[in-house]
## 1
Amino acid sequence: MENQGRRRCRKLVLVPCPFQGHINPMLQLGTILHSRGFSITIAHAQFNSPQTSNHPDFVFLSLPDGTSSKPAMPHDFLPFMSKLNFNCKDPFQEILSLMIEKQEQDDQLPCIIFEIFMSFAQEVASHLKLPNIIFHTNSVATLLTFLAYARLKAEGYTPPQDSTSTELVPGLHPLRFKDLPVTNFAHLDGMWRVIAMLSNIGSSSAIIWNTMDCLEQSVLAQYQRQCQVPNFSIGPMHKIASAPSSSLLEEDSSCISWLDKQGHNSVIYASFGSIASVDAKELTEMAWGLANSQQTFLWVLRPDPAKGSEPSDCLPDDFKETVGERGCIVKWAPQQLVLAHSSVGGFLSHCGWNSTLESISEGVPMICKPAFGDQLINTRYISHEWGNGFELENDLGRGEIERAIKMLMVEKEGQEMRQRAAELKEKTQVSIKSGSGHPSYECSEILQLSYVVTVWMSLTLCN
Ligand code: UDX
């Protein structure tokens, strides 16, 4: 028994989509699976390369992606991703072929886990006959919304002309027409490519979701009924794995010592993720809305290299003087720590899926100011399904922003949302199923997932 005692390599190759809101959950997933005994290789695009030094247990492989400039988001997302998928395919195939060639006799073939937008990874995996699994970093409701376009079209549904219509979308409760990522059905060209990508299960053997049953049980069950492969909802991943930071920008931790000096639930945290941008007018209205609310606030003003100037330079002259110590402004915050801080009592957010999960996990109620895409869907669920926040319509002035903040932080309606946020936090903790010592790893879905991955890898054992 020459090979007896030699540890079988259970190798996973993870392929993240290169944007902050997608890199974070993929590296968290890597941390979870590493803790279950898998070796983790991250095959990433050159664009927005992850900070490798923060993850000494992972192997990082950089794929030449042929992209020379930063895409203007969200408009350039599709052409950028098409180019990246095209350019990364061959280098990825070469890397995997080499990996297979070099493996030892009793090693198992690697299993590929790829973010749904990195479809080249599935093409390569199918070609090399490697087991592969899809990872979705958005909500299940978002996927079902995209898939519904085809159904609505097939049913001959004619959407209202008005993109601000509050008419409910048939079969997509609780979404209104205005909550759809694209409302103009006459211009769905690019959308069909996204839908084709999202609906392609191809050779994949399972789907992993960064979501929780306590939030999305019914939509998950609905999707599972139309899907041939098992779905695993193992979120919120950032609470399951205590993964190191995967921030692409440097986190300014000084805001944590500032938070330490504030009262319980007294601070409104305002941050709009890594992509959404605010124009000069919105910035001014937001600044005075925060200032006039008389609440203490922490505000992330992310620099936008495309604009050349720092957003904080564009703040009104007398703004900083007016707010003094009552406001803290940073370029990038350690958001998970911020939301977990006892001083933070509300989150004014664009409602990206990670921000939504991070807020729910900490029981922080939200004011939703979505910018595009899935943020509109998440907002509708927060305000009309889960009840842990409300929507602030776009293009509103300082008066409405001030009133919204006061409502969340000091008024009765805000108290009720805080209560619902606390209940959701509790349900989240129950769904994580803490065990002693190693909380999260007791989570039954993760155990099942590890089992499934291991079995597939055994089935494809190299002879
Ligand atoms: C993008 C899309 O815009 C979003 O709609 C989609 O759901 C995911 O991909 P992004 O806009 O960056 O994501 O938002 P979000 O999903 O909230 O992810 C942002 C991540 O950056 C979060 O994990 C958050 O904790 C982190 N973050 C944000 C920081 O670490 N510091 C900050 O100052 C702000």
## 2
Amino acid sequence: MTTSPSAEDAAGRIARLREEIEEHNHRYYVLDEPVLSDAEYDAMLRELQGLEREHPELVRPDSPTQRVGAAPADGFGEVTHGQPMLSLDNAFDADELREFDRRVRERLGVASVAYVGEPKLDGLSLSLRYEDGLLVQAGTRGDGRVGEDITGNVRTVRSVPLRLRGERIPARLEVRGEVVIRRQDFEQLNAGRLEQGERPFANPRNAAAGSLRQLDPQIAARRPLTLFAFGVGECSEPLGEMHWQVLEQLGAWGFRVNREIRRLDGLDACLAYYNDLLGRRDSLDYEIDGVVFKVDDLAQRQTLGFTARAPRWAIASKLPAREATTRVRRILPSVGRTGAITPVAELEPVEVGGVTVSRATLHNLDELRRKDVREGDTVMVRRAGDVIPEIVSVNTEFRPVGVESWQMPERCPVCDSEVIRPEGEVDYRCIGSLQCPAQLKESIRHFASRRALDIEGLGDKVAEQLVDTGLVQELADVFRLDRQRLLGLEGFAEVSAGNLVAAIEARRQVPLERLLYGIGIPGVGADTARLLADQVGDMDYIRRAPAVLFSLIPGVGRSMGEEIHTFFTDEANARGVDRLLREIELVSENGFSPDYVASLTAGEIVAALGISGVGLGPKRARELGSKVTYLTDLMGLASQRLQAGGVDVQGLRQQLEERAPLFEEVDALLIEKCLHWATDRGGAQIRGGGGSSSTLAGRSFVLTGTLESMTRDEAKARIEAAGGKVTGSVSGKTDYVVAGEAAGSKRRRAEELGVAILDEAALLDLLREAAG
Ligand code: 9MJ
């Protein structure tokens, strides 16, 4: 039994865990130098959560557990900034920057000024209030004087110190900074949303600002937000003579300060810095919309003072806009690989940030309606990074009279199939599947793409020709192409036709993960395909596996599991896959990985199936998982034992009950998996979800209550025949208590001790496994 540590021990352990976790947060989220694995970090956080649950009096607002997201609010309160949050005047070209420098020098009466140059991040500006080093409030800029109180959301941002590190901590301090989502994080965030069938965010700025404006901090907690500190507002003590020193001090207190920030001596250095950043704009990790120049000397700043809205000591040099105004010629429905119909605006060509843009995506019908884009409209288009340009807004002043809003066609513009909107989805879809030439073309292109089969020479144009000429009517047809047929296509000669045929032949042997990605299961990207290949590994089994199997794979989850299952049970898909499999040979299959599933503990399964917030961290889950064979057994585990491990028993029981039917399905699956290995894989050593061995050798059983299909003596004989032993009383050494009808005190004793309880069916399964 775990003994509960005394409050004194707990306080010490809690303090050490907090320090270690925050140290890790700082290394990971501020310094970009992680040292711990995710699992180690998670284990520490879980341990801390457990201890704090046992000792609620020891919970502090700066504990890392307090980041995870407080309860939703009804609305935001107000914060009054100690010092106003200023906006910046803009310089739109080099001349305006020169003019700014001239004014500054004149007012100061000096020949040259030292500046600090900072990338101007495009996110949401915040002010964080610290009292004696503790974060007490965080607010948006608002009107500069009063903003919205978003403390609950900001606490979830890991790069925001909940308590300042180091020394010289002032009694009162306002830190100013910008919250952004970094480019890489943004791409991951959107990829995840797409996989979950959610609408992607238009750009990192909207995603960051939107996340912090959510009333439910749990949402912000899941978004990869980063704070870059760039200055201070009110401060009870002076922090130095130069802005540069202030930034260094912020770094020492544990804030992330942009590494691109430079001290610049005079105007020429500023211009060079601007050009350098402009040239590297796309390779920066975050979106910037300008470069800020600030007078470094704080005494000089005092002399310069403010205009009505902005300081005279700083200016934002804007980078060339990534937005431009143009007109929508037409709106066309574009049919994608999965049949989703996207309205696309055909534009009068316009230059945006150095690239000519003539099409912009409107994402979906809801988005189009929200922005109310119509043909003939004057619109603002935006291009950010490498993504497809999009329409930001419409200037309705210039709307031609009598233009109706755009309608989604009722039939596919390409194949004339019906267009439907599946329940709960944002996209309308053509139901034509691969009968629809548009979907077929996109599918072939995807099938041949680099991360799928990687067929060189089979790109957009060739895919289009193959479909238009009828040479390819399904994916399997790609493998039936020969030189003669290709020669009949425009642009193909002996050599190019021979090359393409050779490239296709070379791919007749294909790794499972590439095939799984290539066949285009909705929502299954290359990473998911790899997980499926690694963790399940057998195409036959993937095709007939119940959806719930996929849920057991971390990173796949339930809704995607459903999608995969639906895809393979669709008759047309099944036939297409059959024909494809006849053409190819799957290589390097690792078999239906018994090691993987056997390594899953019941606790991990619980985590995979979405039981959350009950304190079942990996370490605890492993421990728990070793106590039970089947998920439903979790219900029987003793409360005391769970509580001692920091598990919220009520919460766990409730969630288990809600998911009872699902768990029964999983339990059935565990049995099926065992049978599958036993029959298909030559009877490998099989362990259930709880890690129990398939053979009963050395396992001790206690029988209690009345069994239906056999007497207790028969059961005893069968267990012993399988290598187990049967004893009369339940102890910590007992592996299983078999509880029949009207089981009484022994069952209760098993519950108290956390011994796995089997019903008759589970016993029969175990015996069958052992016999297999
Ligand atoms: C941004 N957005 O990155 C300021 N900013 O300074 C930086 N904004 C600023 N400085 C004074 N780096 C007012 C705003």
